Amino acid sequence: NATDVEVINGVVVYASGRILYFSEPGKPASIPDTWRIPVNMQTEITAIAQNNGYLYIFGLNETWVFQPSTGSPASGQLTQLTDAIGCIGPSALSKMDGTLSWASLRGIHAIGAGPFDIAYISDEIRPMFDSALPNPVLNYYTAGGQLGVATTAVAPRMNWSWALDRGYVTMDYDILTRSLFVSVPAQNLVLV
Q: Is the Cβ–Cβ distance between 161 and 82 less than 8 Å?
């Protein structure tokens, strides 16, 4: 079973285990035996994404990039970008104004100025990835000295803090408001 699927230069790329499978151009169901690329990753591939002609391959804690060359779709250069930042899963990716962004166990990242530059873009919510992000509603009540109100009226129905639950994280970009949405359904949480 494929973990993720992407299209690059008219070729469908399937990721399964630690292997990339490339289809023939215009024939998504035709995958020649020689058009497979094993990726020497620590874990299985969690997601793949095409951005500006490069194919990014993610494990849970690592990121690789594939630069296609002319000729066979499965020929090109495979390079490890980092062994410390990966992607949580295929739904935890988004493109925003031509920039690829994704969620890892360490935060939200984006490909920076160049195709090999990874930028950290989640400083304000870093506690959610390091330990726990305080709930701003409950912190408003406690900061105002209304702990009793928060404890009896609001707290039983709300979390005091949010920690990353990597089970299912989704990301999407709204082009009209230029906002990146990160959804963590297990926490009933959407960060903008």
A: no
The tens digit of pLDDT for each residue in 56-98 reads 999 999 999 999 887 777 788 999 999 999 999 999 999 988 8
Q: What is the pLDDT of residues 157-184, one digit of tens each?
A: 555 555 566 667 888 999 999 988 888 7
Q: Which two tokens stand for residue 40?
A: 């020497």
Cα–Cα nearest to 184, from 77, 140, 168: 168
Burial (Cβ within 10 Å: 0-12, 13-18, ≥19) of residue 171? buried
Instruction: For residue 64, count CB atoms less than 10 angstroms from its CB and return exposed for 0-12, middle for 13-18, buried for 19 or more.
Output: buried
Judged by DSSP in three states, 82 sits in: strand
The CA dihedral of 103, 120, 162, 83, to the nearest 10 degrees, is 60
What are φ and ψ of residue 115, in 5° steps?
-70, -10
Among 13-17, 27-31, 91-95, name the one with the lowest average pLDDT.
27-31
DSSP state of 135: P
Predicted TM-score of the model (pTM)? 0.82
Can you name the residues that pair with 100 across neighbouring β-strands? 95
User: What's the pLDDT score for residue 155?
Assistant: 47
Beta strands 76-82 and 108-111 are unpaired
- Residue 190, beta-bridge partner list: 183
